[in-house]
């Protein structure tokens, strides 16, 4: 399969993937772990200031489960209270909630402070998240050297995410000296703990021949392990390697990747799939771009509209380009004006309906200067 997302494009998408994927998964894992580390027996209170450390220690796992599965704002009060009373797992969870803006107002600066508090009392997850904040500028200025220092601490304490993040910094060399040999070692250590994304990166090393002899069969084995662990990037890469020999299975993995992938992954993979010689992969590319439209972003409406326009789905294309244009996307406005003024117009009903729709959505007086609307009439 020739479709291939360049490493740089993949890295840019992965940075956000990690924010959207591993961080949101971590928060629920951490919430669940609170059930074990904190216990209490009273009924819920809406004011975290009224919840004492004694009451928190007496809460049973069943009572915590009931609180956390109920009103999100109520659950936030309990997590905040536990954080204030020094429970390190709750401090990381509360920081994550502030970072995500989930059930509370988004406040990256406050999130960083809570991650730092948790790290200072020994939370490995807190140490890793302080590194993330320094790497991505969440609540603090971007500082790659500081991010490395915290990742090294987390990795040394056997944090699989710390090992993965450290390896990624060493691989891409952002703000630090690149060291692929060290990166592979840390990816291997994280993979040894079952970290799916790290497994996928080990596969990438074997496919590219970085620090090891190129071996597509071994790369596919690593990609498969990671894909079975629901890493959508590895599902995509496995599909690439299987496309020629096992196209049916490749399509199945592409379907899973598109279903579970983040918007940034879909934005990277969609256009590449559209350029593949197999028409079936074109369909997967269209599905990827269509799913991106859930974001409500004008750029996603435009990308999907342009893609289906190239497939001669004129009426649908006009509708999506119209949505993008109404959201202020300048290229979408230009595409609509050019589309409406094409001199060689296909004699099919969908094209005629598209032209009518464009005229309804974007009257002539609102089309960009220089429009050729009506030129073919």
UniProtKB/TrEMBL annotation:
It comes from the Bacteria. Pfam families: Sel1 (PF08238). Coiled coil: none annotated. Gene3D superfamilies: Tetratricopeptide repeat domain (1.25.40.10). This is Sel1 repeat family protein. It comes from Microvirga aerophila. The lineage of its organism: Bacteria, Pseudomonadati, Pseudomonadota, Alphaproteobacteria, Hyphomicrobiales.
